[in-house]
Amino acid sequence: MKKTLIVLLLQLFLGFDSLYLHAQEELARSNTADSLGLLDNDTRHRYFTPSVGYNSLLYRDFATSPLFYRGAGLHLGLAWLTREAERWESTYQMGLNTGFTFADMPESNYFQGFTSSTFVNAQLYGHYLRQINTLSNDKLKIKVGPALASDLNFRFNGGLGNAGAGSEILLNLMLGAQAVYDFSRKESKEQDWLLFTRKLRPIKRELSFQLNVGVLNFNYRPGYAYLSDFEFDGSDTSPLVFLYGGHKLYLNGYRLRTHVAYTSYRQNGNAHSWSYHWDAAHAPGGYEIFQMAIHRFQYTLMFHRSKK
């Protein structure tokens, strides 16, 4: 009787012990997955995201000349991103794109023309996107919402004389759509490389695509040219009066912005991403058209700020 009781107690103890070890293992796996953001929860994640990139620039301004200017430059940016689980996200971005461009001059056998320009583009951007549950699943998330983009362009071409400095302001109310595909590795995996074995840990990875289309497109552009006659009474002699004196606000044109990004998250909540951005604007203004396109390859760090 005693032996039977001892065997029963031993089996019961071993059963509880194996159950406890299994629960601890599941808890550790859950904590690892949660730290990587692999589990759906109701937490709010905030990120500070500085970025740097390479720009390929193209623009032309009929208020000065119909020539295309092409060149390259650098991008610097700061942004703040907030995500509420998988339901919505908002972001606020500041960016500076600079470049040195050359005009596409007609080829000549007698006298080959040459001119260059310095281009500066300062951007403010923000959006608020909500998830569309009927179009989303565990792997693919679809979000839509409004976006607002504002640009201040400034360029200088000494070869244009008194019309060498040009500037305009673009303001675009846009509709944004975002698709995020999750291809995370949720369990550890080993790879056999003959001479050695490599262990791959769980990692959260995303591939995203976003498209913004301008709905209301405003531009603050000059009339026929930057050299314009405007009323001047001598009360204000600031450079902005001379630069923007002949400008007016117009509602016309179009704006398209899109980007593709690969994002990888670390166990501490931080992340980094590689992305390609394309931004195009067409601003007819009152009489003369301005057009620009910016291609950008960008690297972004994502610092996890807090979790509530």
Account of the 3D structure:
With 308 residues, the chain is mainly beta. The protein has a single domain, classed as Lipocalin, CATH 2.40.128. The longest helix has 34 residues. The radius of gyration is 28 Å and the shape is elongated. The N terminus is likely disordered.
Topology record:
Layout: H1 2-35, E1 44-48, E2 51-61, E3 65-84, E4 88-103, E5 116-131, E6 140-156, E7 165-182, E8 189-192, E9 197-200, E10 204-221, H2 239-244, E11 248-251, E12 254-265, E13 271-283, E14 290-307
Antiparallel strand pairs: 1-3, 1-14, 2-3, 2-14, 3-4, 4-5, 5-6, 6-7, 7-10, 8-9, 10-11, 10-12, 12-13, 13-14
How would you concisely characterize the structure shown here?
This protein is mainly beta. It has helices spanning 2-35, 239-244; strands at residues 44-48, 51-61, 65-84, 88-103, 116-131, 140-156, 165-182, 189-192, 197-200, 204-221, 248-251, 254-265, 271-283, 290-307.
